[in-house]
Amino acid sequence: MVNELVKEKIILEQNIGKEVTQVMIEGDIIVSDIKPDISVILQTESKVCIDRVDVSTDRVNFMGRLDIQVLYLSKGSDKTVHSMSQTSVLEDFINMDSVTKEMFVEVKANLANVNYEMINDRKVNYRAVIDVEVSAQSHETHEIIVDIKEIPENQLLKTGLNLNRCVEKKSDKFITKDELTIPSGKPNIREILQCSVVISSKEVKVGNGKVSIIGELNITTLYRGDADSSLIEFTEHEVPFNGAIEISGVREDMQADVTLTSQDQYVQVRPDADGEDRVIEIEVSVDIMAKVHCQENLQILEDAHCINKNLDIEKTKITCPKLICRNKNQFQVKEIVQLNGDCPDILQIFKVKGNPFVDEIKVIDDKVIVEGIIESSILYVAENDETPLYSFNTYVPFHQIIETKGARMGMEVVLDVGVDHVGFNMMTGREMELRFLLNFNAQVVEKRDTNMITSIEFSEMEKSVLENMSSMTVYVVQNEDTLWKIAKKYNTSVDDLLVINDIETQEQIFAGQKLLILKNYIQAEVVEE
């Protein structure tokens, strides 16, 4: 009788490593010839983007850019607001042991700090420190034994294995275009100073071979109006968008983690039907990174025995990720903020932006605790003739407890935090209430080392071994004993033990119980022939 091994391949994602480096970029922004001199810098916006990643053996090269925009108040009696921008090249590499071009490599870049200094009234120097994190994952294929044909089921010990398997990681981009109309009551556009795009309210659907995303682009525009009295104007628009990324084999029972990033935007003013400059044509490029996961419940072979045969079982320790909990929720952060002593009083708040940073993540029983801050910038009309427009920066702390059933200390947490909406109320000339609606997407993963059977060699028991077995044995059940373990030890079957000892189910044995075990004569006689 030939015992055929039934094998199954499992593909697991393995973290190869993570490396962190800092890149410094320094340069000057020069006011163009057609714009007036700088009196004071009002507000700066900086964004770093990674455009390309090249991977070779033990090395990751990355290329991108640093986009900087500066709002400033001009010199002179009119004190008009102007903007200027600069794009600097980001290019560097990081050494990473064991990385190869076949692996999935992700590069994330975040601005750690940007300092600005006015060199003179037509030049601003900037120094940026950028944190770059490079992580690499590979797909490892393991062939494990899940069954043995021609061996009775009661001689096979099987167990369930719950896997959180990465199906696919894929990146793509889509373009959203729209026309934004200036609301009535506001002046026509003379010059667009700043246009900011924030992605919010995204909904992800998985199935039919693709991941679909529906959401909104919150677009805020600062512009100079054509009226002489217009210092600066502010408009808000919500633009719906939908996009999809094709991933073969994706089903509705799978889950996707999607990261959306607004990379490039192109803005142009055009006249409306009456010939007035009141329409903004905007085109936004959105990068998509989708990671699709599925939960798999497998029955694998934990152990086996075969009457009158020796089994040489080889096991391999394999680290398996198990998704313990996934939770998405929203949390509103409110804070009463007061201006510093050297800030002018507020007449009107134009714009508030916030960028969340996580300082600490703690895992306790059934909960994930997140501590962090929201870096906030407030642009407002000031009650000051010398500085009619002013920008104030502050930090708003947040503390959130996320319910994650099954979470325990030592488990791994994957957390994504973003600002979905920003609101504010002016309370007094020096006090305001800021409101930030934060989105939390938390996953708790436990990595377990499991010994899986990868090879079995069969051989017949020697005749002398079978002959020396006792014809009848009285065995006293020990703690942690099971009928299966006893049957394996004494070269018999669970069914024989149940019948001989008049036991109905395997669970009815207990420590101290005496069991009668008889030698399996039929199998022994077959071998002797």
Notable features of this structure?
disordered C terminus, 4 domains, 3-stranded antiparallel β-sheet, mainly beta, 529 residues
Describe, in plain words, how this protein is organized in 3D.
The protein is mainly beta. It has 4 domains: 13-145, no CATH class; 151-307, no CATH class; 320-459, no CATH class; 461-528, LysM domain (Membrane-bound Lytic Murein Transglycosylase D, Chain A). The protein is 5% helix and 71% strand. It has helices spanning 463-467, 483-489, 494-500, 521-528, and strands at 5-30, 38-56, 59-74, 81-95, 104-120, 123-148, 156-181, 189-207, 210-225, 233-246, 255-271, 277-304, 309-338, 346-364, 367-382, 389-403, 412-428, 431-460, 472-476, 514-518. Strands 1-6-5 form a 3-stranded antiparallel beta sheet, with no helix packed on it. A 3-stranded antiparallel beta sheet has the order 2-3-4, with no helix packed on it. A 3-stranded antiparallel beta sheet has the order 7-12-11, with no helix packed on it. β8 (189-207) and β9 (210-225) form a beta hairpin. The protein starts with a strand and ends with a helix. Residues 522-529 have low confidence and may be disordered.
Q: SSE order in H/E notation?
A: EEEEEEEEEEEEEEEEEEHEHHEH
Content of β-strand:
over 45%
Structural class: mainly beta
For the largest beta-sheet, the strand count, sense and barrel status come to:
3 strands, antiparallel
Number of domains as seen in the coordinates: 4
Low-confidence stretches: 522-529
Mean of the pLDDT scores?
Answer: 90
Strand runs, count: 20
Spatial shape = elongated
Radius of gyration: 33 Å
- Number of helical segments? 4
Distance between the termini: 15 Å
Strand order of the largest sheet: 1-6-5
Helical residue percent band: under 10%
